[in-house]
Amino acid sequence: MNVPRIVGWTVAALLAGSVTFLAATVRVIEPQPETVSAPAVEDAPAPALIVPVAGVDASKLRSSWGEARGGGDRVHQGLDIMAPAGTPVIAAADGTVEKLYLSKGGGGITLYQRAGRWMLYYAHLAGYAPGIAEGQPVRAGQTLAYVGDTGNAGAGNHHLHFGVARMAPGEGWWQGAPVDPYPLLAGKPSAR
Questions:
Q1: 20-59 pLDDT, tens per residue?
Q2: Which fold has domain 46-185?
Q3: Most buried by CB count within 10 Å: which residue of 12, 56, 116, 135?
């Protein structure tokens, strides 16, 4: 509700013989229109995640967040989950397949999955599971793809690069603020 606010008073008194003069000044600030802002990106609670590679126990994961990559200024912004070639990559949470993307360098065959205000990124895939398509709803544990070594993983270095990004309203699949996935997965059960 927009109600004027009184922010200050000024009182002056003048005594002149037997006449008393009293003056009061009230300053009023007119109300401003109410604005509703979108919740801050930090307000989006992290989704409940499961380990996104079938048969991998969370106790086997090792954080590599922030480690140098590629000999330059690039740092690792994800979690590498080692597994044999062809191991099923599963949805870490309920959501929707946002983008199937072939990155010529970096991630190789990739899949982006939206889970509420979060984007989950699966990279270095050998290929997608049959029937996987953009816009498709998926459930946690559903097979999305298979572990591979595409992109800059290096031949024979089979693993899933798993990334998590917190998304602001209106951001696209390629945007968002990267978040370390390791604490979100550590201690979680694996899907068999």
A1: 444 444 444 444 444 333 444 456 677 789 999 999 988 8
A2: Glucose Permease (Domain IIA) (2.70.70)
A3: 56
- Total-model pTM: 0.72
Question: Which pLDDT score, from 0 to 100, does residue 188 have?
Answer: 52
Check residue 75 and report its DSSP letter: B
Helix or strand run (H / E) with residue 183: helix 182-185
Question: In the chain, what are the domain boundaries?
Answer: 46-185
35 or 18, greater pLDDT:
18
Residue 91: closest CA among 140, 161, 146, 159: 140
pLDDT, one tens digit per residue, over 168-187 is 999 999 899 999 888 888 65
The 3 state secondary structure assigned to 88-143 is: EEECCCCEEEEEEEEECCCCEEEEEEEECCEEEEEEEEEEECCCCCCCCEECCCCE
Q: What is the DSSP letter of 40?
A: P
- The answer for residues whose C-beta is within 8 angstroms of residue 177's C-beta and 6 or more apart is 41, 165, 166, 167, 168
Cα 47-119-40 angle, rounded to 5 deg: 75
